[in-house]
Amino acid sequence: MHTELITRFYTAFQQRDWQTMNTCYHANASFSDPVFRNLNAKEVQAMWHMLCLNARNFSLTFSDVKAGEQTGHCQWTATYTFSKTGRTVVNKINAAFTFKDGFILTHTDTFDLWKWSRQALGLPGLLLGWAPFFQNTIHRNARKSLARFILDHPEYQ
User: Fold this and answer.
1) Range of 27's domain?
2) How confident is the prediction for the chain on average, in pLDDT?
């Protein structure tokens, strides 16, 4: 059951179908990754909507989908053009899930933020992407973008 849920989520993501992605989450869901930390259910849905709308030259693969009654995981790779720099990013991500009532309750993605910043930002990411202050700046900028998106989309307020 939960294997099918994860597969439905990433198949929808491949098609940038944020509506279907969002139906996979529990009403009390949370999400966290190195860029978007500790999002609540509405913020999670807004994030996927925003990322799907803004994706350029986007492709996604996923594999190793495994799930039991309580937890699940998979690996996925997103390839896209980072809009702020025009640079190509190939981000390899490990996803971990918990489930409740047939929905995703928690979703935690892990990836190497320094590697991501080298690809997305070039030389500044190479030189500073390992530093906590730089990673916090990336996080703050992402949260600002999400907050602006939510202001423009009242369904997430």
Assistant:
1) 2-156
2) 97
